[in-house]
Amino acid sequence: MLLLFGWRTSSYTTSRESAVVELHNAKIEIATSELKHYPLDTTEGILTQSGVTIDKKISSDGNGSLRIEATETTTVRLFETGNIDIEDARLIYQARLRTLNLQGKAYLEMWCQFPGGGEYFSDGRYAALIGSTGTNWTTEEIPFKLKKGQNPDNIKLNLVIDGKGTVWIDDIRLLKGSSTIECLY
Description:
With 185 residues, the chain is mostly beta strands. It folds into two domains: 1-30, no CATH class; 32-178, Sandwich (Jelly Rolls). The protein contains no helices and twelve strands. The strands form two sheets. Strands 4, 5, 6, 7, 8, 9, 10, 11 and 12 form a nine-stranded antiparallel beta sheet that branches. It has a three-stranded antiparallel beta sheet with strand order 1-2-3, with no helix packed on it.
């Protein structure tokens, strides 16, 4: 079985001209290094303080998580990093999420601000969580590709709840991955 750009191939031939490939949902592992880690054991540093609480009983790591009871669509502003001196890399916002009775969807959102005022975003709206995950935690991540010379002076990490319900977020990480993915045959 091969991993190929986020897809798993379950059958193939050795001839490139006559390759027959069956693709199934999968993910590719990219070597990363951790730039920031926010365990969410306290509300310290969290930008949005209203409507959020620390839940010590429900947590992906056993130390607490941030619980949001959304009664309407909201963007929870979590953290801003300031300058972290990164360029020519894949920036990855990763977090553990859990939902209960979510009517709508919940997803991660990351904004990169650049010197001179440019601001660009990446979000996970097309892979958003809906409904209830039960007692299961899911790891969600969104990438932002930075080219050589692109060095954001601030990164904003948010959680968007497009609807109403309960969402827990825990174990936020900002990771640095390679700007290119090589495919080896």
